[in-house]
Design a protein that fits this description.
Blueprint (H helix, E strand, L loop, with lengths): L6 H10 L3 E6 L4 E9 L5 E9 L14 E7 L4 E6 L9 H9 L1
Antiparallel strand pairs: 1-2, 1-5, 2-3, 3-4
């Protein structure tokens, strides 16, 4: 059975517990970082962010020069926001590699 969560509660939990998030944009970019803040429209600010393009996911490496200190994303560009801990790393190489470097 699928458990549904109110978006506001979900985002507050991610922010307050400082859980890493996986954000996919409509245009193919993917980000892994920590949710610093959000507003009522779900514009989000991420911190300690790694950015990846859809084409580079297979060869993704996690180095300091790819790390952004802060990123602000407008709500209408977001496709999904996920708690990294809820994603099976066996099904996503990008997350498995990110976890390995932490």
């Amino acid at each position: 059975m699928v458990k549904f969560t109110v978006p506001d509660e979900f985002l507050h939990r991610l922010k307050n517990e400082r859980l890493p998030v996986y954000v996919c944009l409509k245009w193919g970019q993917k980000y892994i970082g920590f949710l610093n803040s959000f507003d009522s429209r779900i514009n989000i600010e991420l911190g300690e962010v790694y950015e990846f393009n859809e084409t580079s996911e297979d060869s993704a490496t996690f180095e300091d020069d790819q790390k952004l200190e802060k990123l602000i994303i407008r709500c209408n560009n977001i496709l999904t926001i996920s708690d990294i801990n809820s994603i099976n790393p066996e099904k996503n190489d990008l997350i498995r590699q990110w976890r390995a470097c932490q």
